[in-house]
Amino acid sequence: MISSRTARIGARVLALAAAALTLPACATITRGSSQEFTVESTPPGARVSTSNGFQCDATPCTFRMPRKDAFRASISMDGYVTQEVQIKSGISGEGAAGLAGNVIFGGVVGAVVDGTSGAMNDLTPNPLIVTLRTPAEEAAWQDSERARLASAASAAPAGGQ
């Protein structure tokens, strides 16, 4: 027969073991699964909406965004061409350090938690800085880009050498 004292000790050991399994998630604990994401525009006062459901009425603005998912940001203002920017989610230097901590200390569970929570990632670019252009400015910019690309293509050596 097990004494109540032995049962209490056993329960404490199990509780400590369960808690220890959650500790290796270094990046999740130290960095969290979300981060501040800032949008600035020239001119200021543009509307921002994201493909993952966030929005603000006037730049500059800052959101608390999940680290794990890439998304698209749309920046618009009356009289200007809307800008669409792809925001990437990738492993950051700090996140990689958290993963290394998990590996060093044997935290396979922690590595899985950090990987699935997005805690190892950062959103880039952040801050997102956008210059809005009028339709005339956009047309002139596109013309200059086409000319630059044509010049670069004609300057390239024949045969890729």
Low-pLDDT residue intervals, each spanning 5 or more residues? 16-25
What summary fits the major beta sheet?
A: 5 strands, antiparallel
Order of helices and strands: HHEEEEEEHHEEH
Fraction of helical residues: 40-55%
Distance between the termini: 84 Å
- Please report the total strand number as a whole number: 8
Radius of gyration: 25 Å
Question: How are the strands of the biggest sheet laid out side by side?
Answer: 3-2-5-6-7
What would a concise description of this structure say?
The protein is of the alpha+beta class. About 40% of the residues lie in helices and about 25% in strands.
Describe the fold and architecture.
With 161 residues, the chain is of the alpha+beta class. It is built from five helices and eight strands; from the N terminus they run H-H-E-E-E-E-E-E-H-H-E-E-H. It has a five-stranded antiparallel sheet with strand order 3-2-5-6-7. Strands 4-1-8 form a three-stranded mixed sheet, with no helix packed on it. Helix 3 (93-104) runs antiparallel to helix 4 (108-117). It is elongated, with a radius of gyration of 25 Å. Residues 16-25 have low confidence and may be disordered.
Could you give the topology of this structure?
Blueprint: H1 4-22, H2 26-30, E1 34-42, E2 47-50, E3 55-56, E4 61-66, E5 71-76, E6 83-91, H3 93-104, H4 108-117, E7 121-124, E8 128-131, H5 135-155
Parallel strand pairs: 1-8
Antiparallel strand pairs: 1-4, 2-3, 2-5, 5-6, 6-7
Helix pairs in contact: 3-4
